[in-house]
Design brief:
The protein is mainly alpha-helical and 113 residues long. It contains four helices and no strands. The chain has two domains: 32 residues; 58 residues, no CATH class.
């Protein structure tokens, strides 16, 4: 019984500390705790900071990949090595398997030339 009471008090304490941190963060950011940052993560065309957006959805557009990765994917697709192209996208961008496969499929649909 005592152990359950201690566990409950511990959980309440953790939640209270978490709420205080969120409140402090909101005050620190001027009341915008959960708003999007005002920083433009794509300010440079070269993906400054290593950030690359996910591929464009099935709109027929070329996926947004770093130029060196896009070139490597095109070469691998011409050679018929689609699995390696997916892995190259995943390693270079940090995309999950689904998004990387979609990006490679979009490059293949748009042609490898």
């Amino acid at each position: 019984m005592l152990l359950m009471l201690v566990a409950l008090l511990g959980a309440v304490l953790v939640m209270a500390v978490g709420m205080a941190v969120v409140r402090w963060g909101a005050e620190y950011r001027g009341g915008r705790a959960f708003d999007a940052d005002d920083v433009d993560s794509l300010s440079g065309a070269d993906g400054v900071g290593g950030y690359w957006p996910p591929p464009a959805e099935s709109t027929g557009q070329e996926p947004v990949l770093p130029p060196h990765v896009l070139g490597r994917v095109r070469v691998l697709l011409r050679e018929g090595r689609e699995a390696e192209a997916v892995e190259a996208v995943r390693e270079a961008t940090g995309m999950d398997l689904y998004r990387a496969r979609e990006a490679v499929a979009l490059v293949r649909r748009n042609g490898t030339d």
